Amino acid sequence: MIYLFKHFLNNLGYIIVVAFLISRLPVFAQIIRKEKLSYISIITLGVLFGGLGIIGTYVGVNVKGAIANTRNVGVMVGGILCGPYVGIIAGIIAGLHRLLIDIGGITSLPCAIATIIGGIISGFAYKKSTWKNKWLYGFVAGVIIENISALLILILARPFHLAIDILKFIYLPMMFANGAGIAIIILLTENIFDTEESIGARQSKLALEIANRTLPHFRRVNEKSLNEACSIIKESIGAMAVSITDTTRILAHVGAGADHHRVGMDLVTEATKRAIRENKIEIVNTKSEIECKYKNCPLMSAVVVPLKERDKVIGVLKIYYDKENSIGHRDIMLVKGLSQLISTQIELSKIEHMKNMANKSEIKALQAQINPHFLFNALNTIVSFTRINPDKARELIVNLSTYLRYNIENENIFVDLNKELEQVKAYVQIEQARYKDKIEIIYDIKTIKEEVKIPSLTIQPLVENAIKHGILKKEGSGKIHIKVKEDKDKILIEIKDEGIGIDEEVVKKIYQGKNKAGSVGLSNVHNRLKRIYGKGLTIEKWEDGTRIWFYIHKNVKEGTP
Predict the structure, then answer these.
(1) Domain for residue 202, yes or no?
(2) What angle do CA 378, 380, 381 make, to 5 degrees?
């Protein structure tokens, strides 16, 4: 009996090695993630674990015509880890094999039946157990199936006295070996995946930390910013060198080999071209594979990972090391996660750039609205004042110059609030000179000590709208109130006019984002404010005229989308 114990322990070693190799299959990752297995995967696993059961039979020991073995270990591990279908397939394969290799043997039939029942029992254990207690269910199920096997031998094996003798020798060793063997293999498998999850978590954390540090450098992609990003990556992961390329040339290279792996050089490594062409990770294990023409290049191995924008490869991230065959699974996991984060950052930076361009194009649209008639009338007004009031004419020339310079030269998305108000006042004085007493402007501007940024060309279009579509369209004169007031971390800006009042249909179109004749300026300002602050203009009736107001936030600076 002691000999059998030793033999079973030795056999378990072989089974553990084979089970470990099976657990390396990619399909096991699906099992851990609890994904649904395909029919092909189920059949493949069933055959593999059935084969493990067959190995258990062949390495068994002949005891008075019976085979003392660890067949049920392979079958039940398959069922408990991979599901009932795998267990049943493995049980049928290993059970039929046991029957066919020793047809008429004293324990062939009961052992074959027990093995098939073991596959079924393992399916129940799979459904009842959790990932953390599968080993316990495995041990109990292993003990149960050996008792079922012993019972079947007593019932079916003949002569009866020989069946009793066989069980005296094999019952305890087989019950212990199979129960313990199942539990040990499941525990080892759990430990392997727990370790991989732990490594994956650490690598993911490191990738996120690197991504967080490199984020500012991907907002404006250029040679300097990419070099800074490469430096951070190199420092964080302890690589020999880090490089970023597009699909044809090197964009940045930091670390060893920077003297000859220079920015602007064409790509020469076939692995890099293949990674771009086939959109897959390439492992370069030897110096010859790097294909560097520089004789003393210190770079010996590398991981090449595609960088993508949406589904299109736009370049690669290359991590270099100073030893051949030094790329491990951890390195691949880290670089793969890092490339995904960098790809996302590049894509977001382009989106942000496009938003900024859109903002600037909207400013251009407002600048383009400078009406030639306004310039003509303003100049005529100035000419008339040169005869009767030269000082006023000079003042208006300065105002017109201020107004035009602000509109023509300014392309910034954000400007200082005081600059914006200066431009508004210049515009107002020109219009007041033209229309004399018809327009009265009342300023209610509170002093704000700190510098506050405001989206460019925001207030003037509202004042222009109040003059053209409010005051000038009514009989007699009218007032326009311009209010700027600090409210905690926000600034209230309000334009009220005593004009004819804005049409509700126009307001509706503005809120819907549909431009209507005469409301292009209002729609433009509303859309930009909404995109920047989340809320645009509030437009409402006020007495007989119109009240338009909005808030700007002090902490929103230039460059905010």
Answers:
(1) no
(2) 65
**For the chain, percent of residues with pLDDT exceeding 70:** 78
- Does 390 reside within a domain? yes
Q: What is the CA radius of gyration of the chain?
A: 40
Report the 10 Å Cβ neighbour count for 29: 11
| Alpha-carbon span 375 to 380, nearest angstrom | 9
Grade residue 114 by pLDDT with cuts at 50, 70 and 90: very high
Q: Which long-range contacts (CB under 8 A, 24 or more apart) does 244-251 make?
A: 244/307, 244/315, 244/316, 244/317, 244/318, 245/272, 245/315, 245/316, 245/318, 246/314, 246/315, 247/276, 247/313, 247/314, 247/315, 251/223, 251/226, 251/315
- The residues, ordered by sequence, that sit 6+ positions from 90 with a Cβ below 8 Å of its Cβ are 45, 46, 47, 48, 49, 50, 52, 53, 74, 75, 78, 79, 119
Give the pLDDT confidence of 269-296 residue by residue, as tens digits.
888 888 899 988 888 888 888 888 787 8
Tokens coding 486: 């600090």
CA pair distance 550, 537, nearest whole angstrom: 5
Highest mean pLDDT among 117-131, 221-235, 383-397, 524-538: 117-131
What's the total number of domains in the chain? Answer: 3
> Is residue 208 in a domain?
no
Task: Quote the domain boundaries for residue 130.
Answer: 2-196
User: C-alpha angle with apex 188: 62 to 60, nearest 5 degrees?
Assistant: 5
Q: List the one residue out of 259, 283, 252 whose CA is nearest residue 269.
A: 283
Chain-wide mean pLDDT for the chain?
80
Residues 380-399 have pLDDT tens digits of 778 777 777 888 888 888 87
Q: How confident is the model at residue 558 (pLDDT cuts 50, 70, 90)?
A: very low
Give Cα 56 to chain centroid, integer Å.
46
In whole angstroms, what is the distance from residue 403 CA to residue 407 CA? 6
Residues 239 and 288 in one domain: yes
Average pLDDT of the segment spanning 218-242: 82
The answer to whether residue 203 is domain-embedded is no
- Over residues 544-557, the mean pLDDT reads 82
Tell me: do 410 and 509 sit in the same domain.
yes
DSSP class of residue 467 equals I
Half-sphere exposure of 492 (CA within 13 A, CB side): 16
CA distances from 107 to 82, 364, 463, 509 (A): 29, 92, 101, 88
Q: Which residue has the tokens 């392979």?
A: 74
pLDDT at 496 over 80: yes
Q: Which two tokens stand for residue 343?
A: 């790809």
DSSP secondary structure string for all residues of 286-325: SHHHHT---TT----EEEEEEEEETTEEEEEEEEEESSTT
Helix (H) or strand (E) holding 432: helix 417-435
Q: What is the mean pLDDT of residues 183-196?
A: 73
